[in-house]
Amino acid sequence: MATRRWTVIAWASLTVGVVLGMWWSYQVLGWGGYWAWDPVENASLLPWLTRPPTCNSVVSRSVAAC
């Protein structure tokens, strides 16, 4: 259960970071859009996309162990 909790906390923290980064690039830098396909933005998007399958595998393992 602790692994699942920390995985969800990590994913939520990454979500907040990605959203704040999107807001910052739009408001402060004025790049003209929420997602400019900058390498830094892509580097934050890929771990965010892999987190739901990770959460799913953690839940599947915990159910299989019961």
Q: Would you kindly provide a written description of the structure presented here, covering whatever features stand out?
A:
With 66 residues, this protein is mostly helical. Helix content is 80%, strand content 0%. The protein has two helices and no strands. It has helices at residues 2-27, 39-65. α1 runs antiparallel to α2. It is elongated. 0% of the residues are buried. The model has no long low-confidence stretch (mean pLDDT 76).
SSE layout and pairings?
Elements (H helix, E strand, L loop, with lengths): L1 H26 L11 H27 L1
Helix pairs in contact: 1-2
List key phrases describing it.
2 helices; 66 residues; mainly alpha; single chain; elongated
Pairing-aware structural class of the strands and helices? mainly alpha
Compute the number of strand runs.
0
Our count of helices gives 2
Strand residue content:
under 5%
The coarse overall form would be: elongated
User: Low-confidence segments, ≥5 residues, pLDDT <50?
Assistant: none
Order of helices and strands: HH
Summarize this structure briefly.
The protein has helices spanning about 1-25, 40-65. It has about 70 residues and is mainly α. About 0% of the residues are buried.
